[in-house]
Design a protein that fits this description.
- It is a single chain.
- The chain is of the alpha/beta class and 313 residues long.
- It is 37% helix and 22% strand.
- The chain has 3 domains: 3-74, Orthogonal Bundle (Arc Repressor Mutant, subunit A), CATH 1.10.10; 88-161 and 268-306, 3-Layer(aba) Sandwich (D-Maltodextrin-Binding Protein, domain 2); 163-267, Periplasmic binding protein-like II (D-Maltodextrin-Binding Protein, domain 2, 3-Layer(aba) Sandwich), CATH 3.40.190.10.
- The chain has helices at 3-15, 18-25, 29-43, 59-86, 102-116, 129-138, 226-234, 252-255, 281-295; strands at residues 48-49, 56-57, 91-97, 120-126, 143-148, 155-168, 180-181, 205-208, 218-221, 240-243, 258-261, 266-275, 305-307.
- The strands form 3 sheets. Strands 3, 4, 5, 6, 7, 10, 11, 12 and 13 form a 9-stranded mixed beta sheet that branches.
- Helix 9 links the parallel strand 12 and strand 13 (305-307).
- 33% of the residues are buried.
Length: 313
């Protein structure tokens, strides 16, 4: 039994396909298949049910994969100890970013990070918050950038910045004449929202308030295409809300339709997150330091009301 065999097994368990797993392990499919077959022969147990499409783990395979994760993590920890002792910042680092943050934040820090840490192979993947939590838990990514708090005890959160929401309001809308808007003036039925992976509904922004109980306002932010919301709003189909960084590249004509909230504005908390057992802390510190340095000049808001990314309805 070798660490390499266990890594190949974990790859197949993740991608549920031998060919895709081989590609991501940078080996040929026959090589990967042969090594897994050798492992199965040594253990005298079938790890995968190859007759299923996609491939599934057998019952014993599920237990083997769980133990394989522990063994591979511990083997990586030895390398990480050496790297930290030497002050080495390099190697592969897998980073997940949610779709509503990727287009604005990534261009701000990627070039600087690559220049400062040329020995790091940064592998970036756009993922939903749900996918990020799962992949952090399963060890398939090293860290992520997402809206927080997530209220997950297994995940550590390091706040990067607070990003206020800004209203984008067409001329015919009742709030267009106002200099600043308030949350109380919003009507959830009047706000353009995107449906997760499809049209538009409550996947971008869902602002809820109970008119009967007068409870505190509850916010939720998920993922979606802000470009679509902007175009729909410009066509007069309603107002929408945008994170602050998404407003910076709007042209002068479109910026005339922006309305800030009264203080404190609703805002999302954006954090660098990682599993509590994470290795590669020197890489996480390097990434956070780089993002801190470039974001500081773009966002300087502190008096805000944090929006929860969780669905608590």
């Amino acid at each position: 039994m070798t660490i390499t065999q266990l890594k190949y097994t974990l790859a197949v368990a993740e991608y549920k396909n031998f060919t895709v797993a081989a590609e991501n392990c940078f080996v040929t499919q026959p090589t990967l298949s042969m090594q897994i077959q050798k492992l199965e022969e040594e253990l005298d147990a079938k790890i995968f049910n190859r007759s299923k499409k996609p491939i599934e783990l057998t019952e014993v395979g599920k237990r083997i994969v769980e133990q394989a994760k522990v063994i591979v993590d511990e083997s990586n920890r030895i390398v990480d100890i050496v790297h930290q002792q030497k002050g080495y910042i390099g190697g592969e680092f897998k980073l997940g970013i949610i779709p509503t943050i990727m287009p604005t934040l990534l261009p701000m820090f990627l070039k600087t990070f690559n220049k400062n840490y040329p020995k790091v192979q940064l592998i970036i993947e756009e993922l939903t918050t749900e996918e990020i939590v799962r992949k952090l838990t399963d060890g398939y990514i090293d860290a992520a950038i997402a809206a927080t708090p997530l209220e997950n005890e297994a995940i550590k959160e390091r706040v990067l910045y607070y990003e206020p929401f800004v209203g984008l309001i067409p001329e015919e809308h009742k709030l267009y004449q106002k200099n600043k808007i308030t949350v109380d003036e919003l009507n959830v039925e009047d706000i353009l929202l995107l449906e997760d992976g499809h049209c538009f509904k409550d996947s971008i922004l869902n602002i809820c308030r109970s008119p009967k109980t007068g409870k505190n306002i509850h916010f939720q932010l998920e993922s979606g295409s802000f470009d679509t919301l902007i175009k729909l709003s410009k066509d007069g189909l309603g107002m929408t809300l945008l994170p602050y960084l998404n407003t910076l590249d709007l042209n002068e004509k479109d910026q005339a339709h922006l309305r800030e909230f009264e203080t404190p504005p609703p805002a999302r908390e954006v954090s660098l997150i990682y599993h509590k057992s994470q290795l590669k802390m020197q890489l996480i510190e390097a990434l956070k330091s780089t993002i801190d340095s470039v974001v500081r000049g773009a966002i300087a808001f502190s008096d805000v009301e944090i929006v929860s990314p969780l669905n608590k309805a």
